[in-house]
């Protein structure tokens, strides 16, 4: 009988700053990023309502459209809950940060361009955004500090599977539109990762 060894838990040394006085250690813990969709009528009130709904559902972070006109009011609605924005250029990153985003989600294929255009004094918190657990594992292995997986377009079964696998390989942020499902996955995986450490 052959026994397959259990792979070691990746050593994740990622942290996320919330404001000036709080840092979240993501060694075994993961955070749920709730996605507020682009409003149908382009109104700030629609985004604010989406933010409140995500917060009530249990999101740790709320991602809103990166447009400053929508992001600014959303950042004021959430209080202590951090706001994230997905960006692909240095200009969009700077505008989103200035409007109140405290986390920038950058697709892996745009990371080099965003980092190259970052001003020297910019204190941006950036997470590499991937769409598969395998890509997340590669980013963690290559030394990316904070990695997020986008499962917002996956159905329930595929979402649970991809989220669980991603968390086991070192991804620590899960971008989702199904907060309750992802919250359960994150909590179970946190216990398992803590037990395996």
CATH topology assignment: TIM Barrel
The CATH C-level name is Alpha Beta
Rg (C-alpha, Å): 17 Å
- The class by helix and strand makeup works out as alpha/beta
Number of domains as seen in the coordinates: 1
Identify the CATH architecture.
Answer: Alpha-Beta Barrel
The largest sheet is: 7 strands, parallel, barrel
Can you offer a commentary on this structure?
- The chain has 197 residues and is an alpha/beta fold.
- It has seven helices and nine strands.
- The strands form two sheets. The protein has a seven-stranded parallel beta barrel, surrounded by six helices.
- The longest helix has 18 residues, at 179-196.
- It starts with 14 loop residues before the first strand and ends with a helix.
SSE topology:
Blueprint: E1 15-18, E2 22-25, E3 31-35, H1 44-57, E4 61-63, H2 68-77, E5 83-86, H3 90-99, E6 103-107, H4 111-116, E7 126-130, H5 133-141, E8 147-150, H6 156-168, E9 173-176, H7 179-196
Parallel strand pairs: 3-4, 3-9, 4-5, 5-6, 6-7, 7-8, 8-9
Antiparallel strand pairs: 1-2
Short structural summary:
With 197 residues, this protein is of the alpha/beta class. Helix content is 41%, strand content 19%. Helix 1 packs across helix 2.
Give structural attributes.
single chain, 197 residues, alpha/beta, TIM Barrel, 7-stranded parallel β-barrel, two-stranded antiparallel ribbon, 9 strands, globular
